[in-house]
Amino acid sequence: xxxxxxxxxxxxxxxxxxxxxxxxxxxxxxxxxxxxxxxxxxxxxxxxxxxxxxxxxxxxxxxxxxxxxxxxxxxxxxxxxxxxxxxxxxxxxxxxxxxxxxxxxxxxxxxxxxxxxxxxxxxxxxxxxxxxxxxxxxxxxxxxxxxxxxxxxxxxxxxxxxxxxxxxxxxxxxxxxxxxxxxxxxxxxxxxxxxxxxxxxxxxxxxxxxxxxxxxxxxxxxxxxxxxxxxxxxxxxxxxxxxxxxxxxxxxxxxxxxxxxxxxxxxxxxxxxxxxxxxxxxxxxxxxxxxxxxxxxxxxxxxxxxxxxxxxxxxxxxxxxxxxxxxxxxxxxxxxxxxxxxxxxx
Length: 346
Description:
Blueprint: H1 2-20, H2 39-42, E1 48-49, E2 59-60, H3 83-96, H4 99-105, H5 118-131, E3 141-146, H6 163-167, E4 170-173, E5 181-187, E6 191-198, E7 209-214, E8 222-230, E9 233-240, E10 262-264, E11 271-276, E12 280-287, H7 288-291, E13 299-306, E14 310-312, E15 315-318, E16 321-325, E17 332-337, H8 340-345
Parallel strand pairs: 3-17
Antiparallel strand pairs: 1-2, 2-3, 4-5, 5-6, 6-12, 7-8, 7-13, 8-9, 9-10, 11-12, 13-16, 13-17, 14-15
Helix pairs in contact: 3-5
């Protein structure tokens, strides 16, 4: 009986320790506060870098204990009340209610041409400042994107044949359901570079596409910004949580007013394409200033790589992902920073 009791006690202790280990927690609950008295958090006060089997670089970070123990922990979303959120909302409505934006959005099909609206420049500036304030939950693993200085020769052609991809980038196997899909992450002072080798994508048909989502925790008014890379090149989009507030749509060209505002063509400096020889490969670059991605500050993101859809009786049934890193509900957190090896070489 004593041995059985001892076994139960040890099992309870092991379960408690595992529940508190970073990386094993369930998805973050925004209504939940962090217990800073936890010995697991109290013992870990510094930035710790350690390699993991599936990453070339990773970090785990814990913020310091607040001096006032009665204070609740900060939430990962840039918290309200924050004047910048109100300024962002005002800038959005100034743009979408302008005659120029309405005429542009009412054109048939997907909107064409980069958004040169003056309000869009203001939106980008405000959300870039907000991005610097969004913080990950305590104990979140950060995937490091190496920051290098000499990547001007990188050509975005979908070939993945520059040596920087193999020698300098963070490489993560993100294949889903047995598929082999390799993600590359790299940056310099101007751009974030994204590469993807869809090793098991061996057909040219279907809806092959690489998607990178970010600005997930920047503001309550923004669901995400993202790029889509395919045979058609790259497109930058922003999905908002903002609704049209004036008169209802008058015709089919105005049906965009029925939904949350989707901003198309927001990146003039982004580049991306894919290639196909034995398998599909993707390359893309995102300008850091234009996209509002900060250096040395964590940001949340997720990746999707789409393949051929499933059909039954010649009818579309479902879409297929052959690669994923994170999800909207459980994103990964990335940070662009110099690492020891690259710091010594620059």
